[in-house]
Amino acid sequence: MLQVKLIITGDDFGYCPRRNQGIVDCFLAGAISNVSLLVNGSAAADAAELARRHNIPIGLHANLSEGSPVCEVLKTNSSLLNQDGFFHGKMGFRTALSKGLLNMSEVKQELKAQVELFHELTGHLPPHMDGHQHVHVLPEVRHVFAEVLEEYGIKYTRVPIEPGLHNCDWIPPSLMDFYLGVEEDSFNTVDVFTKHGIRWPDIYIGLSTMGRNMSVSSIRSAMDSAVQQLRAGAAQSSAGTIELMVHPGYPSVPPVGGCGEGPDDFSQSWERLHELQTLIKPELQSYYKSRNIQLCSFKDL
Fold first, then answer.
1. Largest CA distance in the chain
2. Contact 274, 214 (CB under 8 A)
3. DSSP annotation string for 214-231
4. pLDDT of residue 247
5. Rounded distance, CA 59 to CA 12, Å?
6. Active site residues
7. What digits encode the pLDDT tens for the residues 75-86?
8. Alpha helices, DSSP H only, in the chain?
9. Per-residue model confidence as pLDDT tens digits over 40-78
10. pTM of the entire structure?
């Protein structure tokens, strides 16, 4: 029987104390197996301490789009900042990039500063590093990101290409357009990451199961398709890896939280708690066992 290793990553660890608590509760319930830390999050130091206390596997969620940079020299007069002195935002970053307004040496400087801060907070380098709002697969950024990972010897990342995404007719068209853009950027990133010796799980899930679209059945359905795909290619290997990206937590309560400019709508949404409550359901744990799916983290690969 095919041995499937499943990494369930709780993103945005460090965003606020309530998000941290929800992620820890999920981990202690055996519902997630890995976390991704926002080092510019308002509760990043608290998150690092919680990871240490509970032995939670932790990597870096590199952030170039929300809040403030951690690199001191970039906190004023940097191409990465808008007129209010914060990062350009999820779509603003993409617009600035497409207009050629972002200085890639500043992107590299900030990514390195975030790796260094991660090391300072946790006492070790991140075993994996991905991008908040998928900025790491964007044109130009992908090359700089890969160089930083290679430089620090960080072996693993995330490439958000989700099988069956095109068939998810419950995703609103505007969101689907964004997801398809992420998918296209990811396809164009594969060769770059490969050239730098960076690896990632065989299959990624997380766009079709996010927020209100998360349910036991949506996770099982996505997982069944993923396992089927792994089995189809199992001639080369008796094991396969999947990463499920999730965003559980207790909703942020303003003004507490965020990455420098307060908590956003995403973090305050009821959908954070919905994800937490779905992930801890016993039916999911039973499902993983029945399919020979073993939860693990990047350092177990």
1. 57
2. yes
3. --HHHHHHHHHHHHHHHH
4. 98
5. 11
6. 11
7. 998 999 999 999
8. 17-28, 44-54, 90-98, 104-122, 141-152, 173-187, 190-195, 216-232, 265-268, 271-279, 282-290
9. 999 999 999 999 999 999 999 999 999 999 999 999 989
10. 0.97
